[in-house]
# Entry
Amino acid sequence: MDKMIYTVMSGLQMLDVARINNANEIANANTIGFKASFSQAAGFKDIGVKGSQSARAIPVLSGDNVMKLKPGSLISTGRNLDVAVSGKGVLSVQSSDGKEVYTRRGDLKINQSGVLENGKGQLILGDGGAITIPASRHLEINSRGDILIIPADAVGNNLQSVGRLKLSDTEGKSLRIRPDGLYETLDGTSLEASKNIAVTSGALEGSNVSIIGAMTKMIQGSRDYEMFIRMLKQAKEVDSASAGVLTAE
# Structure
């Protein structure tokens, strides 16, 4: 009986987490570079009784918030500071707590201090930290992530490099999504810069969330909730019947 109760309560808990996550994905369906996440898995939890050698394996559901790096649609903007990251690459940014974390959001801009950031105000990192852009009359970013400018006081049109975006390859690695929407490695370590990752300038990557898929999840979640409630009712009926048999004896 307790196995059924644990299974049902575990399932209801995961349904609540999945519902919140799904709602978040729907809300970010039009957010630049947003990635869907969350998956569920069935497993077992060993419950031991203190002072006893016996234990029980209770089936439970667990969930994670591991990012799914399925590419989103490419949106052409023609803006020099917009970049879309290729493959399974990520851009390095600085979070509000000062850590190096990652994003696919490439709507870059220069803030009032002359430092490069994205549309959410998060500092973009290069190999040596934050990237400061001097006054210029032309700026572009090539496919390798090099930031090239023609200084405002320069004679001629020779391009000068003022920094390079730190691009990392996540192939074979798992990243989870933080509450602020940025990504981090599961063990909290930083990724190395990779020369295998390129960017497309003048374009942005759209969200990889499928509205139809999200709505399907919502419908399935409602059906799963009804199923678990029926299981609870059945558990109560079985428990009542068992109690009746014991009373009769």
Summary: The helical segments are 2-27, 211-248. The chain has a mean pLDDT of 81.
